[in-house]
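Researcher: I'd like a candidate sequence for this fold, 370 residues long. If you have to choose between options at a position, lean toward the conservative one.
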């Protein structure tokens, strides 16, 4: 069969690799960008792997997915431990004994728990209905006001009372002194960058990659020339927005080179107040323990932005309105028997990398009835 994969991000790359590896299938991968790897693209500058589309830390508890990626990259032992800067005061993340000590001066888990319980009282007996209520229910008002509210409202461009609770459920709360942001069994960053990893996935005699190529410039031709299309772009754009636009959140990245070896002492610092216009600054060399030019560093400021047609759609906004609209697009998608919709945009899901890989492997199994 002749497959066309639209998008060389993680979903497209895994699907292409696994399909090409099945004997005589031929796979053409197109991407409208000038590079492969989608949002996990990294570019080397001054010997530093720069995460061009924001910080990407690989973490998973899925052993199959972890084993799968080991074929294409060696991972370092990076553990994400972001710091929050609230009006000049630094707090450890995720919410753990270090944070509680910095916030309230408490030293033991018992003292912390007593404080958290006192703070959560206002939600007693109530079912959290939105992100604000969920956050107060989880951790209380002080932490909500200083570490969640400003950051979240900047990130999503709307009040926490209008956001779904699930967004905040991702963040761990711990009564131990442990700044590891993730609870997963496996974590790390591919040594030498994500781009190399994706290039290795796509390096197969049955795969052809064409960059700077937009599917919509030749949609009809592609349908004629290929047996099957794997589409990882925006699902509403595929259908020409005929049921209406899904909402996305966009980002603007400002990358600067600094003539200093170590700018902020950590890979990720979140700015959790409402006034600072960016949400976080990342210092790329710390993802690889300071590797690269010892007198220079590269930082990126991440500014959240509204999405309008033509902007990069980084995040699906999975609130009720959008999920219902997506369900209607998914019905249309089912009727397209020549097309598989995949990835963060094709399935309109706030997927992490490991979930994207899992979904792509599942799509391959379904395609080949395994
Ligand atoms: P994408 O990477 O978006 O790939 C889609 C590709 O399709 C793009 O290259 C695009 O150019 C191409 N395309 C779209 N339309 C067309 C068209 N019409 N014609 C041709 N090509 C087209 N996950 C984690 O696990 N850990 C993290 O730390 C993490 N951090 C993140 C930080 C940020 C700021 C963001 C935005 C996401 C983060 N993620 C993280 C999620 C991760 O980026 C995604 O799960 C993953 O990259 C999605 O892969 P994908 O293939 O679905 O999509
Ligand atoms: N969040 C927050 N304060 C922080 C970091 C995260 O309130 O300092 C909230 C915010 O709503 C964000 C969500 O937690 O959207 C998930 O954060 P995560 O770091 O997992 O988001 P991502 O890396 O996917 O942008």
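Model: Candidate sequence:
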């Amino acid at each position: 069969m002749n497959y066309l994969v639209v998008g060389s991000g993680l979903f497209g790359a895994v699907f292409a690799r696994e399909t090409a590896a099945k004997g005589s299938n031929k796979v053409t991968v197109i991407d409208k960008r000038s590079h492969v790897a989608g949002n996990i693209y990294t570019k080397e500058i001054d010997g530093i792997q720069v995460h061009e589309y924001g910080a990407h830390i690989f973490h998973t508890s899925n052993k199959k997915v972890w084993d799968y990626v080991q074929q294409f990259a060696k991972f370092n032992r990076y553990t994400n431990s972001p710091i929050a800067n609230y009006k000049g005061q630094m707090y450890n993340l995720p919410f753990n004994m270090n944070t509680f000590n910095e916030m309230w001066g408490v030293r033991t888990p018992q003292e912390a728990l007593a404080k958290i319980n006192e703070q959560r009282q206002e939600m007693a007996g109530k079912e959290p209905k939105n992100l604000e209520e969920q956050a107060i229910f989880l951790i209380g008002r002080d932490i909500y006001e200083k570490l969640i509210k400003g950051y979240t409202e900047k990130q999503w461009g709307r009040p926490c009372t209008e956001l779904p609770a699930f967004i905040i459920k991702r963040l761990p709360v711990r009564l131990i002194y442990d700044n590891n942001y993730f609870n997963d069994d496996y974590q790390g960053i591919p040594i030498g960058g994500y781009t190399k990893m994706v290039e290795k996935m796509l390096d197969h005699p049955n795969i052809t990659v064409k960059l700077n190529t937009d599917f919509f410039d030749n949609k009809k031709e592609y349908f004629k020339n290929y047996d099957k299309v794997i589409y990882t772009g925006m699902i509403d754009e595929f259908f020409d927005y005929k049921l209406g636009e899904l909402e996305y959140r966009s980002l603007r990245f400002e990358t600067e080179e600094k003539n200093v070896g170590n700018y902020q002492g950590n890979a990720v610092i979140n700015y959790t107040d409402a006034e600072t216009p960016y949400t976080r600054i990342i210092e790329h060399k710390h993802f690889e323990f300071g590797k690269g030019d010892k007198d220079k560093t590269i930082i990126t400021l991440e500014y959240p932005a509204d999405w309008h047609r033509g902007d990069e759609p980084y995040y699906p906004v999975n609130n009720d309105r959008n999920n219902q609209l997506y369900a209607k697009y998914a019905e249309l998608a089912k009727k397209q028997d020549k097309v598989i919709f995949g990835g963060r945009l094709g399935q309109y899901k706030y997927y992490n990398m490991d979930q994207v890989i899992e979904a792509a492997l599942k799509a391959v199994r379904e395609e080949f009835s395994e």
